[in-house]
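Re: the 253-residue chain
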Amino acid sequence: MNSSYNELVGTKLSVNLNKIATLRNTRAVGIPSLTHCSRLCLDAGADGLTVHPRPDRRHIRPEDVADLAELVGRYEGAEFNIEGNPFHGLMEYAERYRPTQCTLVPDDASQATSDHGWDLSRYGDSLRPIVVRLKALGIRVSLFMDPDPGCVRAVRELGADRVELYTEPYAAAFAAGRVASVLASFRETAAAARIVRLGVNAGHDLNLSNLAPFLEAVPEVLEVSIGHALISDALEFGLAETVRKYLEAIRRS
């Protein structure tokens, strides 16, 4: 892995399906179908699917994880990423479905969405055996972290394969026209990760406007996980065309 990764291979796009499941759950008629929408995304070129099953089942349900694990298995090279808090039921899904990747997120059960990375000084010892178990299952492990170059060595020492950079601060700064004030921390964190051979993912509030500039500034990113903005754009462009637009934004970087 090096800084020319985007030029050689291209950052992968994983479509987060939570918002589709949220809409479906408002009625008891099974529409929209999560598996049908997932096929549209994969057929349009998405590299993988992401789900975040929460204990309250507000969007992704246990049966969804089973259905999507089976679906992804039919697409050669497609990846399945299950994210969530490993202390709130994530490990059951990992043990049963063996996804490509588990992204460990420190969200509380009551949170509307993830809004901060791990504090490894507090949770590192608890995470260590979880990382060991996931890797023993053959699952790639990514930790959801705030952009901080000082954190990457600790992530690597826990045995994780990747760090997922929490990009909401970047997205907010981009929208406010002051992106230079925050990009340095992302660039420095990704560079530090490269030194210790830690892969870099990114996600949260990335969209068609800010995605390409982010990847241009942080070329180490191996994967972006995008849900809210992508599903919102699909209301205008349709799901398959929206996936293609995000892939084009990645290519532009």
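The two ends are 17 Å apart (CA to CA).
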